[in-house]
Every structure is written in structure tokens, then in C-alpha cells.
Amino acid sequence: MVELIGDLRVQRVRENLARLQDELAAAAARSGREPGAIEVLAATKYVAAADLPILAEAGVRLLGESRAQDLQEKVAAHGQLFEWDFIGRLQSRRVRSIAPLVRLIHSVASETALRELERHREIARPDLRILIEVNLAGEQGKAGIAPAELDSFIARSPVPVAGLMTMPPLSVDPERSRRWFAALRELADDRGLQHLSMGTSQDYIVAAEEGATIVRIGTRLYT
After folding, report:
1. Could you tell me the domains of the chain?
2. Among 6, 58, 126, 157, which residue's CB has the most CB atoms within a 10 Å radius?
3. CA end-to-end span of the chain, whole Å?
4. Residue 62: beta bridge partners?
């Protein structure tokens, strides 16, 4: 049973969002980018569908959902309030239900996912693009393709590749993630890819300094 976030307050979320945006603007400036270069994506895995209007009232505009069934439920209830991305581990059998609903899938990392994207192109959102998940550290059991496989994987994608995503090795020290974020930026720059989805509530500032265009924020936004 998933424990949902309770006691969401409009004012608290609004203040947290403003603080995040200020921090990200400063981080963007440190890396020579414009203040608005980084999007705040609110990760809603632990937010009930009924509470989503609170996020909208607080000024949140981009949501990222981790489960296909929850994505369908939340879009059906409040689809007009937000832009939607899918950020969870992508199961190939769920591509059919996800593709019509989102602008970006952040977690494409398998041949079967590519085949399902090809199979369901006709029902996908016309502007659907994907981010390829890269396992930079070569961690066993972790999703993501190896950097050496990136070019051939991009070439086989049946939908446009907008950029890359990564989850660095787990660490309590955000600075330990910096090398992995910098490596992902280099991979994207070398291939002319626009988006970098990297950084969560723990390490979003380091990610922003290293070139993130989307940071995936959960508890830092809500509490």
C-alpha cells in the first residue's frame, strides 16, 4: 500500500516552488544559462488525484507520474490543468496507455519499448518525444542503456529523441552525483540533444549547475 502525501497546502507548495525557481535560476546563471532554462517537474507518485488541484492553484504546471494506471486516472480527472510526463520505469506493455497522454517519456531504455512505440505511433500524442535513460555507472540491475550503445539506440527510435535521463548511484552527498550529471551533459551535447532530465529533491542544485533542463522534485516541493 502506497502511503500518500497528506496535508498538502497551497501556500506551502507555492512558497516551495518559488524558492526552487530562485535556486534553479541562480544555478543556471552559474552555468552560463538563462534563469528560465530549467523546468520544475512535480513528481506525483505519492500525491492523490484529488489533491492535484492544490498543485495547480500553487502554480505547478508540469507533472511527472511513475505508474501508467495512476497516470490514466489523474489525466482523466485533471488533464486540462497540467502538462504531463511519464517518469517511472517503463514497462513495454504499458506504452500503449502512456503514449497518448504525455509530451515526454523520460525512461526509454529497452528494445521492447522501442518496438511498442513503433507499434502504437498512430495513437500517441502527435508531439510525443522520448528521453533515453542512460546507466552511466554501469550499475547491475539498474535500468538504462550503456553509453556505448547510445548512438545505435537513438538511430532505432521510431519517435523523436529529445534528450537523456539518468539516475546516479545513490548517495547522501549531492556532490557525488556531479560527475554523472556532467557525463550525461557531454553525451547530450555531442549529439545535439536538447533535454537533460536529471536531479531530484536531493541533488537538484548540482544537476542544474551541470546542465539539467528538467529536475524531478517530490518532497522538496510538498513539505
Report:
1. 10-222 (3.20.20.10)
2. 58
3. 21
4. 83
